[in-house]
TrEMBL record:
The keyword Kinase does not apply. Its cofactor is FAD. PANTHER family: MONOOXYGENASE, PUTATIVE (AFU_ORTHOLOGUE AFUA_8G02570)-RELATED. The keyword ATP-binding does not apply. This is Monooxygenase. Keywords: Monooxygenase, Oxidoreductase. InterPro entries: FAD-binding_MO, FAD/NAD-bd_sf.
Length: 488
């Protein structure tokens, strides 16, 4: 008698379903394997490769904007000798990590999760994913959202008057064309953020002419990217621990300094920029932002490559308002014009939490906007769901790893209790004391979605997680049960 094949339409059960095979999802999988052995889990990803944004973003010069010693996985050593990593190096590193620890055995590609629905009666999530046009269904005790905050499917549409009139090529870095050749082309790079800072020196090597056009400037700081080898007199283990603590605490102290003494930090950043720039590119107005340091993210410039690009004869910088895009170029409000072959719109990305997944609790649609956040990772009134949210003013993965630690500790506590679900409940005393933004930056992409974001409170586990050293300790040894309601 032949064995009965399982019906592919029957739902599979897992203790944990992780949505997203990026850095956060990979890290969460490792924590489950090592600290919750025997837990069944699966990683569902709509793409055909691991990596998340690092697989999506393939524009020239793509790299990390944080020191890799804290951005990388704490349990998998970074093999390269520089602290700022190129996108290809990060992908190689992630592939090595998932292969070494067999995390890839748990990943299912081309499984785009479209809907999750919590059943209070069954105490489990019902998950629907699309796999090459066919529905796949899963049941899970826990859902982990490793979806990040970038909308992969629809980059932000830049508000540039007349852009549709341009007869040349318009390229968005998030959707960089494969095999795009731009040698000897006249290019305008519109933008001033991290993407533009990393993209400019890369394209300047081949382009005929590159003009960076920015409406408002950004703080940019030159950062060394040299070999960082272990001193011969220091045991390697102690050196690695010291290096990790150094890169954990140093950025945090810089943020505190910027918040307390913004003018002092502003003067230091603008003086540093002036030191690197050629005489024909003045700091004012090109590198004097209207906002205080760390109100938006400060861009790192490894080995001053961005600043050095302005020493090239084929690179120029314009700060001002675009009046209109014409058939063959750009006209600025002050009357300056430029003839172009290519326009690159590095004007930011669209922000979305939850990967556009239809999230429901007992059939009722979940709205993220205005909902309180517990310990930076769970939503008030939503059982057994955590989302990986990193830091805005530090390495992203530090915050997502804290969430993974909350998960494994909470799962251990629930096993001891015999509980099947945990749901945060914001106390009235907290709800009536006002709210704070969950996102500590005031970037344009944040202002666009402000009303659709959850919020933080002003007390207890509802306060924002914005103190990396203290948050790291609390996620491992602090209280993980405050304001949680458990069901058996």
């Amino acid at each position: 008698m032949s064995a009965i094949k399982p019906d592919p339409n029957d739902p599979e059960f897992f203790d944990v379903v992780i949505v997203g095979a990026g850095l956060s999802g990979i890290n969460c999988a490792y924590r489950l394997m090592k600290q919750q052995p025997g837990t069944s889990f699966v990683i569902l990803d709509g793409r055909d490769s691991i990596g998340g944004v690092w697989d999506q973003f393939r524009y020239p010069g793509v790299r990390s904007d944080s020191q890799i010693y804290t951005y990388g996985l704490s349990w998998h050593r970074w093999p390269f000798t520089k602290p700022i990593a190129e996108g290809s190096e990060i992908m190689e590193y992630l592939h090595d990590a998932v292969s070494k620890y067999h995390i890839d055995d748990h990943v299912r590609f081309r499984h785009k999760v479209s809907k999750i629905d919590w059943s209070s009666q069954r105490q489990e999530w019902r998950v629907t994913a699309d796999h090459q046009g066919q529905p796949r269904r899963y049941l899970a005790r826990w859902i982990i959202m490793g979806t990040g905050y970038v909308d992969y499917e629809s980059p932000i549409e830049p508000d540039i008057p007349g852009l549709d009139n341009f007869k040349g090529r318009v390229v968005h870095p998030q959707s960089w064309p494969e095999g795009f050749h731009y040698a000897n082309q006249r290019m305008a790079l519109i933008g001033s953020g991290a993407t533009a800072v990393s993209l400019l020196p890369a394209i300047a090597k081949e382009a005929g002419q590159v003009t960076m056009v920015q409406r408002s400037p950004t703080y940019v700081v030159a950062s060394p990217s040299q070999s960082d080898r272990t001193p011969f007199w220091l045991p390697q283990g102690l050196f690695l621990a010291w290096r990790w603590l150094y890169w954990l605490i140093r950025p945090y102290l810089l943020v505190l300094l910027a918040n307390r003494y913004p003018n002092f930090v502003r003067q230091g950043l603008t003086a540093g920029a002036a030191k690197e720039l050629p005489a024909n590119v003045p700091v004012d107005p090109h590198f004097t932002p209207r906002y205080d340091p760390w109100r938006q993210r400060i861009c790192l410039d490894p080995n001053a490559a961005f600043f050095k690009a302005f020493h090239r004869p084929n690179v120029s910088l314009i700060t001002g308002e675009i009046a209109a895009v014409t058939d063959h170029g750009i006209r600025m409000r002050d009357g300056e014009t430029m003839d172009l072959d290519v326009i690159i719109t590095a004007t930011g990305h669209r922000m979305v939490l939850g990967g556009r997944i239809d999230i429901r609790v007992d059939g009722k649609n979940l709205g993220w906007g205005g909902r309180f956040v517990w310990n930076g990772c769970m939503l008030d009134g939503v059982p057994n769901m955590m989302f990986m949210l990193g830091y805005t003013n530090h390495s992203w993965s530090l915050g997502s790893d804290n969430t993974a630690m909350y998960l494994v500790r909470l799962m251990s506590h629930m096993k001891r209790l015999g509980a099947r679900s945990a749901v945060p409940r914001v106390p009235e005393a907290v709800a009536t004391r006002g709210t704070q933004s969950i996102w500590q930056l005031d970037s344009t992409y944040v202002r666009e979605v402000k009303g659709r974001l959850p919020v933080c409170g002003n007390a207890g586990p509802w306060k924002p997680k914005n103190r990396p050293p203290i948050d790291w300790l609390y996620a491992r040894w602090g209280n993980t049960t405050a304001d949680l309601e458990f069901s058996m």
